[in-house]
Structure formats: C-alpha cells, structure tokens
Amino acid sequence: MPELPEAEVAARQLRERVVGATVRDCWVGRDDIVREGLSSVAWYRESKITGVERRGKSVILTFARDEHARFLAAELGMTGLLVFRSTPTKHPQHTHFILHLDGGAEPEIRYWNPRRFGRLSLLDQAGLDRYTARRFGYDPLTISLEEFLRLLGSTRSRLKSLLMHQQVIAGIGNIYANEILFRAGLHPNQAANQLQEKVIARLYGIMGEVLREAIAMGGSSVRDYFAPDGTEGQYKRRHLVYAKTGEPCPNDCGAVIRRSVGERSSFYCPICQRGRPSRSAKQQKGFLQTLLKSKLQ
Questions:
Q1: Is 264 annotated as catalytic?
Q2: pTM for the whole thing?
Q3: 2 part of the active site
Q4: Pairing relationship of beta strands 108-112 and 81-84 according to DSSP bridges
Q5: Residue 236 among the catalytic residues
Q6: What's the pLDDT band for 297 if we cut at 50, 70, 90?
Q7: Which domains does the chain possess?
C-alpha cells in the first residue's frame, strides 16, 4: 500500500496540476531518501515539468531543460505519498523532499514517507531505462490476453505470488491480489499452469475490472493513504475479502473468510475459492527465476 490504483490517481492529479510548471528550487530533507542521482539535484532547478506517468507502483515525473531531459522516479513504498502544499499530513517531519514550483496550479510537490521503505531516484534517460528494466514487469492494465495466457501457462508458481511479483506483473499488491482472486473464484495458492485458458481469460478480465474500478473511486484509503489533494479513496468500501477474516462470505455460501499467513496475508473463502495448491515456496522461487530469465532474454 499504495498499489497501482493509488499510484495512478496520484499521477493523474499531478499531471493535471503541475505539468508546465517550472522548478524554482529542490529541497532535500534526508540525503538517504534519494536512492540515486543526489549530486544532480541542482540540474532540476529552472527545469520544466513536461510529463507525469505511472509505472507499476511508482510515479515518474519528466523534466526538460536546455533540450535535455531528466526524471524523478518516486517509489511510494508502504507509506509514501506525493502531496501538494495545501494537503495536511499527520507528521510534517516525515516530509523528506519538496519541489518548489512556479507557473503551475500548485506551488509545491512534497514527498512524505514516515517509514522510508520507498525512495526517490533522480535519473537521466539511461538511468531510467535501467530502473524500469530491473523493476517492472508487464503492466496489468496494458498486458494483452495473449501475453497473460503465455505468462500463466509457463509457470507453476502460485497465483497470488505471481500477481504480486513486480518484475513479472507490476503494480498489484496484497489488497488487489486478494480482491481479484476472490472475484475470479481462484485460491491464492492455485498453480498458474493448472488453469484452463477460459479460466485465465476470466481472471484477466477481472484483473482489469477491479483495477479500473479502484482507480475510478480514487483507490483504497487503507492506513495513511490519500491522494495528492488530500481526498481519500473510496474503493475500500467495495473490498469483499481483504482484512475481513471471520466475516461471512459475500457470496452467501455459508462459509466465513479465512486468513492464511505467508509472506503476505491471504484472505479467501474456502468454498468459493477451492483450488489445488502449488509447489512449495522454494520450488516456486525457482520457477519464477526461470521465468524472469526467459523474459529478459
């Protein structure tokens, strides 16, 4: 958290309000919040913001100056936010980076991150290419059905782990993986290559449906998340299984939602989401590594 829908909402708000603005100054509160490119901070002063996009769970801003371009990649991590100056945060001391702007609808963009699992990277084009190549797999909103069929058919990895593996499919985290699999009627530990093509096609459709619904509703405000302008995402009201342990299944099947603990908690209905378990975590890791190697070749 935040995941793809929340990052997409942030990117859209930033795109609407700061593209065209000029950077008057950059303030860095903690050097360790900048993973790469700290020495290039001065370049961004007097540059113009020319674009904002989302990749996976990250928001990437593009800057132009003297016919050259550089980028700021903001990893939101578990608690990171990009906010405008007028948006209050609980603990202002956790604001670690500020872009002071002229000529746009907002005077500042602030990066707030109390737990600092996310980082910022200041990159040139070659650095951005390396950054995206090592971090992001297919985007779940643009991957084709043919690519999705091939991806799932080539691995025995567990479905939930596969959906959340950022170098395979970028942007889905624990909240949306649980919601997608419940709607699809698939167990989190189901082996991907045991699914029939029609089932994979249904999962593909539901994946896009859930993510687009969440974006339209501003994402899910779980824990400290809110959009740059301070609005809370309302999709949490549509969560069917996430964090609903012990509650009745929404399908009225008579079961209650269970929680299993692995690397991340899974929430599922034992009746509506029956499935054959995949291999052990150790074996699964080997299949994912093989899959990633083949993808990069």
A1: yes
A2: 0.90
A3: yes
A4: antiparallel
A5: no
A6: very low
A7: 4-135 (3.20.190.10), 145-296 (1.10.8.50)
